Amino acid sequence: MDLKFVQTTCPYCGTGCTFNLVVKDGKVVGSTAYQRSPVNMGKTCPKGTYAYEFVNSPKRLTTPLIKKDGEFVEATWDEAYKLIAEKFKGYKAEEMACLSSARTSNEDNYALMKFARGALKTKHIDHCARLCHSSTVAGLAAVFGSGAMTNSIPDIEESKCIFIIGSNTFEQHPLIGRRVMMAKKKGAKLIYADPRYTPTAKQADIYMQFKSGGDVAILNCFMHEIIKNGWEDKEFIANRTKGYEELKALVMKDDYSPENVEKITGIPAATLREAAELYGKAESGALLYSMGITQHTVGVDNVKSTAHLQMVTGNLGRPGTGVNALRGQNNVQGACDMGALPVVFTGYQKVIDPVAHKKFEDAWGFPDGIAPAENGYEVTTMVNVMSDNPGELKAMYIMGENPLLSDPNIDHAKHAFESLEFLVVQDIFLTETAQIADVVLPATCYAEKDGTQTSTERRVQKWRKAQDPPGVAKLDWKILAEVAGAMGYADQFAWETSEDVFNEIAAVTPSYHGMNYERLDKPEALHWPCPEVDHPGTPILHTQKFATADGLGVLSAIEWKAPAEVPDEEYPYIFTTGRTIWHWHTGTMTRNSPTLDHEVPTGWIEINPDDAKELGIAYGEKVRAITRRGEVEVTAKVTRDIMKGVMFMPFHFAECPANRLTNDALDPVSKIPEYKACAIKIEKIQEA
Ligand SMILES: Nc1nc2c(c(=O)[nH]1)N[C@H]1C(S)=C(S)[C@@H](COP(=O)(O)OP(=O)(O)OC[C@H]3O[C@@H](n4cnc5c(=O)[nH]c(N)nc54)[C@H](O)[C@@H]3O)O[C@H]1N2
Ligand SMILES: Nc1nc2c(c(=O)[nH]1)N[C@H]1C(S)=C(S)[C@@H](COP(=O)(O)OP(=O)(O)OC[C@H]3O[C@@H](n4cnc5c(=O)[nH]c(N)nc54)[C@H](O)[C@@H]3O)O[C@H]1N2
Ligand code: SF4
Ligand SMILES: [Mo]
């Protein structure tokens, strides 16, 4: 028997845990702890522990598929490449769009970015960061000049007071949750704000249950109390920020007194006072947030407000502080860093900047130029264009995303994607989106490739190949390089190995410039910015000044605004959505992992017992959940863990898809949809 242990990083969340894959006779059969990672110190959550189970699932894609007369037919790579190249050559550049993937490596994302802008010459490229932390990228760039988590994961342990708002850290970033517990053991206090009494809430010293959509009001109320009592950091405000008087004038209004914010949010005024005092007086305060903050039509306002609180209390640039935007997917940070966004090349070099544009044009050397120096469409805009203006976008290349289950208002999204003339999907499973494609290409998963991914704390870490891919599946970047080759651009994609791709990334990206595979092989890996080969990397940002032009953090006045759709007589409850620890997004991997699937086989809707009583609904009963977008039949979970007037569904399950119900209204700046608040009604299903 041939037994090997291959060290790799987790393919699920942005925490970036390391473990070993156990390989027996050339096949991945299990996982074991890798103790030396400073991130997870040998521990993993259930998803990491069972991340080996889907790898050899019989449902993996093994060969290219081409749709003929409505049915998929197995094809060779050459047939698939020929068809794709012919089709793409027939469209104008701006009629094509690409969706990249926060699940794949930096190398894969870089390849798709170069393929879109260089081979297709289209400016339309985006990925699921739009649905996730686009509010963070826009909001933090406006206040700090740069849009990433400011501190590191180990640093959270140093904090004296941790404020978590809109992140169910213990279920969605469990090994960051562990750090919170380690801080608590050293005496830190935990304040938590979430409409649901989650496993994170259970660990809180002060828990604030509130109605979805009240975040700016809560944060303004904290600042109101802190300034009123003189707990603000006067020195930090004077030396490192601007706009304080404007912010102060707004938050000191009576609208943001605890009594008035109780009316908006449902949090008792006394609790708001107590929490603001605890936070305001803490020696160091770390703020953690995720989707509860970003996924709103006021997502950017929410993000800015979290940053304002941290500046007003001087909680930035030191250990145990920071605005810690917990990034979701394993490599969403990296996909953004690689420029899989409609406005930037790698390392946030703007496409509209003529200097940056020329730099990439020269570095890549396409004989017929690259996409123009113009911003492209965000994925949410693409969907609206496809449905409202059919024919403007005609062809799309999707690598590692499943929008037909993850987009808001999916009936509308499906209609939009179906309007395309030609759709290529490159995935590891035949997803809902792949099913409507014209060509499906089988990719390798994390266990079958060398590559890098960048975690939420900007730590660049390696994946290492543990087994061969199933069938004739290939590396994502390799497939893209070969499609480009079939279009006549073999020279521009002449990489032999993943390392070759990484070296090209490092050459054109200042923040990755000092990195290479040899340096990244060390257990501690490297945090960007890492500008030179002797630079140690940067775990904490903004220690002396911010990345804005004058180095000052920007404070401004932000009023609370209600969500785009609020309850009324017809749709009397607030609806919000999210996740469970056992499953991942559209379930492609976790529902093909028997251990995880067995824990939670299907979806549910959480309803408060008082609401259930009014509706005459019992625990375990099937109900009809209805919004202005659509309806689903789903099992009721009657529980005090959710606030009266609010209902929650996880979005993992195709048989009861929460996204048939969600609102596709967008934040005007970040273009993120409002997944976290809309209006819903519930009907009892009458027996026939
Ligand atoms: N197990 C698991 N882990 C994951 C994922 C997964 O699918 N499964 N996905 C990953 C990804 S991509 C991401 S982006 C992260 C997301 O990580 P989280 O943001 O932690 O996850 P969510 O469940 O979407 O939402 C967090 C909380 O927001 C609360 N909430 C709802 N409405 C509001 C509101 O208006 N305001 C506030 N403050 N809170 C509200 C919900 O009750 C929920 O508990 O998780 C990552 N980790
Ligand atoms: N209602 C509601 N909807 C939401 C959210 C919410 O909170 N509520 N959250 C939103 C957020 S934050 C996010 S990030 C999105 C996620 O939305 P998606 O990214 O669409 O969801 P995933 O299921 O993670 O899809 C990733 C796909 O990549 C494939 N894949 C995995 N590894 C590889 C690989 O190595 N190569 C290739 N080619 N493919 C691979 C998987 O099989 C899967 O089909 O969902 C959003 N949708
Ligand atoms: S916390 Fe995240 S990175 Fe760590 S094992 Fe769990 S899913 Fe993987
Ligand atoms: Mo996400």
UniProtKB/TrEMBL annotation:
List the cofactors: [4Fe-4S] cluster; Mo-bis(molybdopterin guanine dinucleotide)
Q: What is this protein called?
A: Formate dehydrogenase subunit alpha
Q: Which Gene3D superfamilies match?
A: 2.40.40.20, 3.40.50.740, ADC-like domains, Dimethylsulfoxide Reductase, domain 2
Q: Name one GO molecular function term.
A: NADH dehydrogenase activity
Q: Which residues form the 4Fe-4S Mo/W bis-MGD-type domain?
A: 3-59
Gene Ontology CC: one annotated term:
membrane
Q: What is its EC number?
A: 1.17.1.9
Q: Name one Pfam family in it.
A: Molybdopterin
List this protein's GO terms for biological process: formate metabolic process; respiratory electron transport chain
Keywords for the protein's UniProt record, in alphabetical order: 4Fe-4S, Iron, Iron-sulfur, Metal-binding, Molybdenum, Oxidoreductase
